[in-house]
Amino acid sequence: MALSLSDDESGPRLNRRPRPTDTSLFSSELPSFDTNIRSNDSYANARGAVGETSFRSEANNFVDPEDEELYGEGEETKVRELMRRWMDERLSPDLLTWQGELVSEILERLQSQNEIATQLQGNATTTEEEHFAVMLVQTEVERIKFVLRSYLRCRLQKIEKFTPFILATPEVQRNLSELEQNYVQRFGDLLGRHFMQSTLSNLPAHMHSLADENPNMPSMITEPTRSMAVFFRVREDDCPPLVLPDGKRIDLPKGSIHLAQYQYLETLLRREMVELV
Length: 277
Prior knowledge:
- The protein is 46% helix and 8% strand.
- It is built from 10 helices and 6 strands.
- The strands form 2 sheets. A 4-stranded antiparallel β-sheet has the order 1-5-2-6. Strands 3-4 form a two-stranded antiparallel ribbon.
- Helix 5 packs antiparallel against helix 6.
- The model is unreliable at 6-67 (pLDDT under 50).
């Protein structure tokens, strides 16, 4: 079953659900990042008054409206891609592929922008307009830091929820980063020792395995619910139709929004032809 919506439906509002963790992925030392703040004439003129040539050269790169890769209006920018990956990860019942290159590039830009902001704030010649621009940038920085941390926390939550399933499924393990693979191994060891010490040690040896399948009982290994219904938006003009179990084909024009079970659009999502909303 699939349900179509009008093109102008907006995506869901997402609430932050913090989750404590001891992994270094979520260090509070994430640097700052500028995403959408554009310079104006007064800011550019004020910056020209800075006397130090080297400092002025770095400051001029602080907000660059000509950076099409970050601020372009046409193709997807890095920040927009991060938002899309974040939404897909939060709304998908499955653990999606780790976006290591995207996260690494954004972290590099974070560090670069943070260094320039620190120089602007600590330089005595920085004007009031520049201080105001830095404040605006740092406000936007908090949004990007939240999205990045939320993306990582969401993946960590799924890893902890599906640990036995991940350890038993090599195909899913390939979706994890190296740090995530190490984490799921350690978490699985802790979980196994906890089960053994609290319960399994008091049971017969043939009942120690969680992988035992009883046709009269549900599985003890939690797996992603791929039959869950999700909303998705079509991103590409050449997206193939959605084929349902009864053979019905649903055309997917670009920009249209539909409702369908995740298992039927999983391939389209991994090929980036659709996005979850």
